[in-house]
Design goal:
The complex is a heterodimer of chains A (274) and B (264).
Chain A: H1 2-28, H2 40-51, H3 65-69, H4 73-105, H5 107-120, H6 129-136, H7 140-164, H8 168-176, H9 181-216, H10 224-233, H11 237-265
Helix pairs in contact in A: 2-11, 4-5, 4-7, 4-9, 6-7, 7-9, 9-11, 10-11
Chain B: E1 3-16, E2 19-32, E3 36-40, H1 47-55, E4 62-67, E5 70-71, E6 79-82, H2 94-105, H3 109-122, H4 138-151, E7 156-160, H5 168-185, E8 188-193, H6 196-202, E9 205-209, E10 216-221, H7 233-263
Parallel strand pairs in B: 3-8, 3-9, 6-7, 7-8
Antiparallel strand pairs in B: 1-2, 1-4, 4-5, 9-10
Helix pairs in contact in B: 2-3, 2-4, 3-4, 6-7
Classes of the chains: A mainly alpha (274), B alpha/beta (264).
Chain lengths: 274, 264
């Protein structure tokens, strides 16, 4: 099992390595202008430079080693972007979850709220950028607002669907065991809806991640999205690609983390036995 | 003997599109305490409808049902229900599923643990206590569902084709287990099945129902001694007799389906 796993991983590396080799060859053969497409080695060098602190430790006065190690531009940018995703997603999901539960469980709440939701839902968060700047000015607030908006609807829609699809037989079984409304909701409907809610959370985080990059290109002056846009102004294409790779790795890390959480929370669920 | 469950002139009408389907008509049954009764009939004869009415899931259109003289208006823990689809909560372990009813009742943790322990033992589930339902076979799942109902010590057990989805060996195994439990606890059991042999193997009394409208076709007391031998002549005589009755209804069901298909 373990052996096969390594073999699969090894096979998985072949195509990416090949792509990098071709890319390196195209660049070093001088086929393209390095400002348009820098060589992978140059990108790698830039990435390390971007990761390391700007000043040497000795030059920095009155700072601990720890804060020095985290003072690299890349580290600061990644943490700021991540911070915005976490706060924005947290606000969006915290609003969507109770509303979704209420809309899923109560036909009356659903009838009241659904038309508004259906009108607002198709508007992409990006379209709120002008309004966000008008309302919240520049800096973190408009970015967080946009991210929350991006996370809100996927979590909402999936929560509603999750509550509505709960199999009637669980409700009947619980009622015949004497469950009242509170128990029914907390111990039957909510857990039965968790698979749907989690897939909404996953989509919501994905959207939040897209929106953070876009909103950083507009409203703030740090973060990964800002950095790659800034690099373009100086024609630092190696830095643009280094930033993009970081965004990709961060997204992958978030997805892997979500997957782990999913597998843990849904360990009772059919078809998730790995 | 005073009736434990009293079913009085019960009728049930469903609206199915523009048509009205009379699922039950004038059902009148008095079920004494401790009796093992089987409702037998082909699909569509309303036996599950009747069971659901006793369970309190759907009220009859006419007539009434009382348990110990009190009218049935809603589901309640004194009438434990075992479903063909098990209906275990998949997010709870075996232990948690069994404990659920007791937790709703608000019993002390130590008492719950004691009851759960006893039931795990009684239904040979000890090794499976920490498993989730998805990891259990159908037979094991139905054991958990029975334990879940027994936990509340309901005087009545309602069983809706509980062994219908199981293979023959597991089925016989669970039938024996159920008989053992019934003899120990002397609960009143109302058991729905379309298997003649199952009804004969288990029941004190077999109520054969007609296909649409569902009425009582034959109310039969089975006084063969237990454990019954399905190969015994007396068993087979009854089986032949019941088979005749059920087949007549099955034929009506079949004709009805053909007529419906012709209309479409």
């Amino acid at each position: 099992m373990e052996k096969r796993n390594w073999r699969e991983r090894g096979l998985g590396m072949v195509v990416p390595l090949l792509a990098i080799l071709i890319w390196q060859w195209v660049a070093s053969a001088g086929l393209v202008n390095p400002q348009v497409l820098p060589a992978p080695l140059a990108v790698g060098r830039k990435w390390v430079e971007y990761l390391l602190p700007l000043q040497r430790f000795e030059e920095q006065v009155g700072a601990s080693w720890w804060s020095w190690a985290f003072s690299g531009e890349l580290v600061v940018d990644t943490l700021t972007s991540l911070y915005r995703v976490v706060v924005g997603f947290g606000i969006g999901a915290a609003l969507a979850l109770p509303l979704g539960l209420a809309m899923g469980a109560s036909p009356r709440v659903y009838a009241w709220m659904n038309p508004l939701v259906q009108i607002l839902r198709p508007i992409p968060p990006i379209a709120y950028i002008p309004l966000a700047i008008l309302w919240f000015g520049l800096g973190n607030p408009p970015a967080v607002f946009l991210i929350a908006l991006g996370a809100f609807f996927p979590v909402l829609m999936n929560t509603i669907a999750g509550v509505r699809q709960v199999d009637g037989i669980y409700l009947r079984a619980a009622r015949s065991l004497g469950a009242g409304r509170g128990t029914m909701f907390l111990r039957v409907i909510l857990p039965a809806a968790v698979p749907y809610i989690l897939s909404g959370v996953r989509i919501g985080i994905g959207t939040a991640f897209i929106v953070v990059i876009v909103s950083e290109m507009i409203a703030v002056n740090n973060g990964l999205g800002f950095r790659i846009l800034e690099a373009r102004e100086y024609f630092w294409s190696d830095k643009i690609i280094a930033g993009m790779i970081t965004i990709g790795m961060l997204g992958l890390a978030i997805d892997i983390g979500m997957n782990r959480l999913n597998n843990y929370l849904l360990r009772w669920h059919r078809g998730l036995e790995h | 003997m005073e009736a434990h469950i009293r079913i009085q002139n019960v009728g049930k009408v469903f609206a199915s599109g523009r048509r009205q389907v009379v699922a039950l008509q004038d059902i009148d049954l008095a079920i004494p305490r401790g009796q093992f009764t089987c409702l037998l009939g082909p699909s569509g004869c309303g036996k599950s409808t009747l069971l659901n009415a006793v369970a309190g899931f759907s009220a009859p259109s006419s007539g009434g049902i009382t348990v110990d003289g009190a009218p049935v208006t809603a589901p309640g823990p004194e009438r434990g229900m075992v479903f063909q689809e098990y209906a275990l909560f998949p997010w709870m372990t075996v232990e948690k599923n069994i404990a659920f009813g007791l937790e709703i009742k608000g019993l002390a943790k130590s008492r719950i643990a004691g009851t759960v322990e006893k039931l795990l033992h009684m239904l040979s589930l000890l090794e499976f206590r920490a498993r989730y339902p998805k990891d259990l076979s159908g037979g094991m799942r139905q054991r958990v569902a029975i334990a879940r109902v027994l936990a509340l010590d309901a005087p009545i057990m309602l069983m809706d084709e509980p062994f219908g989805a199981l293979d023959a060996l597991t089925r016989r195994n669970l039938q024996d287990e159920l008989l053992r439990i019934w003899m120990e606890t002397r609960k009143t059991i109302l058991f729905v099945t379309h298997s003649i042999e199952e009804a004969l193997y288990l029941a004190d009394r077999i109520v054969v129902m007609t296909y649409r409208p569902g009425t009582v076709k034959r109310d039969l007391t089975v006084d063969l001694p237990r454990l019954r031998d399905p190969a015994a002549p007396a068993f087979n005589d009854l089986k032949r007799e019941l088979g005749q009755l059920v087949m007549e209804e099955q034929q009506r069901h079949h004709n009805d389906e053909r007529r419906m298909a012709a209309v479409d």
